Amino acid sequence: MAMALFTFLLCIGASIRIAQSSPCHAQCTYDRVTGKADCSSRNLDCIPVNYPDSLVMDLSHNNISILEPADFNRTFTRLVEIYLDYNNIYDVTSLMTSTEMGSLKKLSVQHNVIVHLDYSCGLDSLEDISLDNNMINSLYEFPHCQRLRRFSADSNEFQHGISLFVFDSLPSFISMRFNRITYFHIGTHFPLFLFENLTLLLNHNEISDVHIEYHWHQINPTLISLSYNRLQYVYVPAPNELIIANNGLRGLNIGIWVYQRENNIMRKLDVRSNSFDCLIQPDWAEGLLILHANGNLLRNLSSTTLQGFVNLTELHLANNRLLFIYPTALHQLTLLRSLYLDDNALTSLFGGVFLNQADLLELSITNNQLSVLHPDYFFGLGSLERLYLAGNRLLDVNPEIFRLMPGLTTIDFSQNDLNIFDITDSNLLEIFGALSRLELEGNPLQCDCRLTGLRDWLLNNPPSTLPRCQGPPKNSGTVVTDLGIHDLSCNPPKAMIKKNHLNLTVGQTATLSCTATGIPIPNITWLDPNGTMIQKPTVSFHHRKAYHSDGGYVNKVNDDQCVESAANRSGREDDYEVTVRTNDPPQVYQELALQNKDDEYESVSGRGGQ
Question: Which DSSP symbol is given to 522?
Answer without folding.
Answer: P
